[in-house]
Specification:
By secondary structure, this protein is of the alpha/beta class. The chain has two domains: 138 residues, 3-Layer(aba) Sandwich (Rossmann fold), CATH 3.40.50; 82 residues, Four Helix Bundle (Hemerythrin (Met), subunit A) (Up-down Bundle), CATH 1.20.120. The protein is built from eleven helices and six strands. The protein has a six-stranded parallel beta sheet with strand order 3-2-1-4-5-6, with helices on both faces. Helix 3 packs across helix 4 and helix 6 packs parallel to helix 11. It starts with a strand and ends with a helix.
Length: 230
């Protein structure tokens, strides 16, 4: 197998995303309780999450764009409380800052440094991770996100877009991610090689078809495998 470049998922591959998402929701709620208490009372965190899910279900055309989904959610929450102009920029800054305050898995940064020193790496994400805010931008040749691409994983087109950015044929790119369907199936259907970061040692879901080319527990094992292959 010849690997000339990698595409790399971010959330739950390099760091656990749930703590950051929960922090973002709580920081936003704290701001609302201080500055818009009637909005906070009408839309506590569980209700705000339910409203966002409602927006996502209604606006399937925005399945690739979590940012706009959240803007619409806040607009609706404020409109429900009789406020036509929600302070979207401020609200988004609060959310975005907390959402990008992440704690990398201990293996992630050392392995990423090893890999990026020898292969070009493009981040490939459906989410709102910001490489600059997180402090890892220097390790990536490109950043490809669903919002900019117009489609989200597992749609093969986002993987093809990443391959085009890298300037390398899909069959010579290894996509690395934690999600069997979004990452492995999506990349496989686009013609990329696949590596599953399987931190909990789960069996491969047979219903998803062919197993990934590589099944490893963490990023260190991935770096070891790549260096041995090279």
């Amino acid at each position: 197998m010849r690997i000339r470049a990698l595409t790399l998922d971010l959330d739950d591959t390099l760091w656990p995303v749930l703590p950051a998402l929960e922090r973002a929701d709580h920081d936003l709620d704290a701001y609302l309780r201080q500055h818009y208490p009637h909005v906070a009372r009408a839309w506590p965190i569980p209700a705000m999450r339910a409203l966002r899910a409602e927006v996502a279900a209604e606006r399937t055309d925005l399945a690739h764009d979590f940012t706009t989904q959240r803007h619409i959610t806040m607009q609706r929450a404020f409109a429900h409380c009789g406020i036509d102009e929600a302070p979207l920029e401020t609200l988004w800054d609060i959310y975005f800052s907390a959402r990008n305050t992440v704690d990398l898995y201990p293996d992630s940064l050392p392995a990423l440094q090893r890999i990026a020193a020898r292969w070009p790496v493009a981040s490939l994400t459906n989410g709102n991770a910001d490489l600059d805010r997180i402090g890892i931008r220097a390790h990536f040749a490109h950043h490809v996100c669903a919002r900019d691409a117009g489609v989200a994983k597992p749609d093969p087109r986002i993987f093809v877009a990443a391959a085009e950015r890298l300037g390398i044929a899909p069959e010579e790119i290894l996509h690395v991610g934690d999600d069997p369907e979004l990452d492995v199936v999506g990349a496989r259907d686009a013609g990329l090689r696949t590596a599953w970061i399987n931190r909990h040692g789960h069996p491969w879901p047979g219903a998803l078809g062919t197993a990934p080319d590589l099944n490893v527990r963490d990023m260190s094992a991935l770096a070891d495998w790549l260096e041995a292959l090279d």
